[in-house]
TrEMBL record:
This is 3-oxoacyl-[acyl-carrier protein] reductase. Belongs to the short-chain dehydrogenases/reductases (SDR) family. Signal peptide: none annotated. GO terms for molecular function: 3-oxoacyl-[acyl-carrier-protein] reductase (NADPH) activity. Its EC number is 1.1.1.100. PROSITE patterns: ADH_SHORT. Pfam families: adh_short_C2 (PF13561). It comes from Streptosporangium sandarakinum.
């Protein structure tokens, strides 16, 4: 039976690949987007995850169209990369608000229906930099590391109600953002990845599909790296 799925930031890159993968698996998939054009083939709801009112309105629209959200993928996020001595405070707080507090907002709202259903799947999209660190990304790394503590605490709270909460931590993925990097920089990155290449967005999406499936019913509080070995040991 098709489940009601919501993927935040599902209009491009990893989020869109996840939405397509879950739709192929037979689920009814809605996506949120903040700007640009919504993707075709999905219920698309404009939503800024830094606004609790936006989040509540988006969930209301999804619930009216396809029922309570049974699978939530918290993928929406931003970067504002700057070296720490030069980083203005709003560059730090804006990234925390969008990435970490945004995840709190959508997961909290999703649990309203999941608790009533006594089942649910929550997957948070973190990053290898949460554990590895990355120069120029103290704000982003802090937000993505915070997701792990948040997810593991939520997993302990919600497990008795049949709700799992897991984290996927991608490394470098073939997206428009990485494609814009200079080739010399890309080559340097690949040298540090044991598998010697970037991931495709579909490779990340397939791990999310597994965590959202019945096959992963006994997995919660886990952090699954999809990084070609870049962050191993962390």
């Amino acid at each position: 039976m098709a489940r009601s799925v919501l993927v935040t930031g599902g209009n491009r890159g990893i989020g869109l690949a996840i939405a397509r993968e879950l739709a192929r698996a037979g689920d009814s998939v809605a996506v949120t987007y903040r700007s640009g054009e919504p993707p075709e083939g999905f219920l698309a709801v404009r939503c800024d995850v830094t606004s609790a009112a936006d989040v509540d309105e988006a969930f209301g629209k999804v619930e009216a169209e396809q029922g309570p959200v049974e699978v939530l993928v918290a993928n929406a996020g931003i970067t504002r990369d700057t070296l720490l001595p030069l980083m203005k405070e709003d560059a730090f707080t804006d990234v925390i608000d969008a990435n970490l507090t945004g995840a709190y907002r959508v997961v909290k709202r999703a649990t309203r229906g999941m608790l009533r259903l006594k089942r649910g799947r929550v997957v948070l999209i973190s990053s290898v930099v949460a554990m590895l660190g990355s120069a120029g990304q103290t704000n982003y790394a802090a937000s993505k590391a915070g997701m792990i503590g948040f997810a593991r605490s939520a997993a302990r709270e919600l497990g008795s109600r049949g709700i799992t909460v897991n984290v996927v931590a991608p490394g470098f993925v073939e997206t428009d953002m990485t494609a814009a990097l200079e080739e010399a920089h890309q080559e340097q990155i690949r040298k540090n990845i044991p598998l010697g290449r970037y991931a495709s967005a579909d490779e990340v999406a397939r791990v999310v599909r597994f965590l959202a499936s019945e096959d992963a019913a006994y997995i919660t509080g886990a952090v699954i790296p999809v990084d070609g070995g870049l962050g191993m040991g962390h």
